[in-house]
Amino acid sequence: MSVSSEAPAPSGDGSCRGQTSPGPGRKAPGGGRGSAVLCGEWRNREPHANPFFFCSLQDLPVEMLVEIFASLPGTDLPSLAQACTKFHHILHIDSIWRRRCREEYGVRENLQNLETIGISYREVYAKMFPYRHILGLWKLESSYKRLLNVVVDGLCITGWTYRPSLDTHVDGPMPFKPAFRICLTEWKSATVECMEGRHSRPHSCHLQIQKDRLTLQCKKTDHRKDSPTRLRREVGLGLVREDRQQYDCLTYRRLYLPPSHPDDLIRPGLFQCKDDDLGLMIAMLSFHGKYARLTTVTGDLIWTLEIHLMRRIQLRDGEFFRDFDELSRVVQEIPGSRRSRET
Ligand SMILES: [Zn+2]
After folding, report:
1. How far is the CA of 108 from the centre of ligand 1 (A)?
2. How far does residue 166's CA lie from ligand 1's centre (Å)?
3. Ligand 1 centroid from CA 278, angstroms
4. Distance from the CA of 180 to the center of ligand 1, in angstroms?
5. Which domains does the chain have, with CATH numbers?
6. Of 158, 219, 241, 315, which residue has the fewest beta carbons closer than 10 angstroms?
7. Which residues lie closer than 8 Å to 29 by C-beta, 6 or more apart?
8. Which stretches within the chain are classed as H helix?
9. CA 159–ligand 1 middle distance (angstroms)
């Protein structure tokens, strides 16, 4: 929905009232839908007899406009602010941008220290806007799959990677480590910082997004030397195949979570699981009609388990064999048993 396309041009004195109220016989802007509301006392009269049949969007109370604007995509709001001075002033109300930050970037309510450092949600929205495509789940494209979760942490964007461990129990906490961060607290343009390696952390790196691919390039080599050794100690031979050269340039592919349905007994998504040889890993549960599918998204071996939900196996409960005479009859009918008795 784009309200800006229906908003009138600003008047010279900045007043909005009555600009879009058409007289009798005039066509309402936007085809009479969306931007127009019926005035109370004329509600039950014939539209043609009503000179104020349509009230403009600008006639709504400020509180209502705040609610409407806060529900619109943030990309629509700058053009809406140009419609008139009333909209321009309303769009400086920070609760609108706080909601946009929460719904579009996952920014938690009451961002800490925001007032202390003198920055508004409107500025936070603008700072994060160039990085909005980075947020979400990514899967490393290499011989060893790992998961990258890019989220908003305060005024930083952080990429958390899952690192496998043989020692972690399936009930234990999922070990995540920061792979990179983008700090947005500086007034200058934000830079991407690599958090890998044991020394000289953090250091600058280069991040690029092309469609569904995210590439992280780093010129530091200390984590390239350390990581295979560390990983080998952590998960045995499972990671020795990891290409050392790839540590300078890691390419991830976006991972989409399966859709959820209200009737699902278990909500699909990512789950912890454990393999005796490969340790803790992450698997995705999804439902496909009669089938439930479990696919690993981390580890060096990707396997899929498909369960037919309508083919429940009915196990014999043993009641039949509680009758000793009946059991003897069944045993005697087994060919091998009969032969052994005859000989
Ligand atoms: Zn690095």
Report:
1. 28
2. 25
3. 26
4. 8
5. 3-130 (1.20.1280.50), 133-312 (no CATH)
6. 315
7. 6, 8, 20, 22, 35, 36, 54, 56
8. 62-70, 77-81, 85-90, 94-105, 121-128, 222-235, 324-333, 335-342
9. 13
Q: What are the DSSP calls for 67-95, one per residue?
A: HHHHTS-GGGHHHHHTS-HHHHHHTT-HH
141 CA from centroid of ligand 1 (Å) = 18
**How confident is residue 19, by pLDDT bands cut at 50, 70 and 90?**
very low
CA of 224 to the centre of ligand 1 (A): 8
Give residue 164's pLDDT band: very low, low, confident or very high (50, 70, 90).
low
* Averaged pLDDT for residues 2-27: 37
Cβ atoms of residues 257 and 269 within 8 Å: yes
* Per-residue model confidence as pLDDT tens digits over 180-227: 999 887 666 778 999 887 777 788 889 999 889 999 888 776 665 444
Write phi, then psi, for 299 (nearest 5 degrees): 105, 170
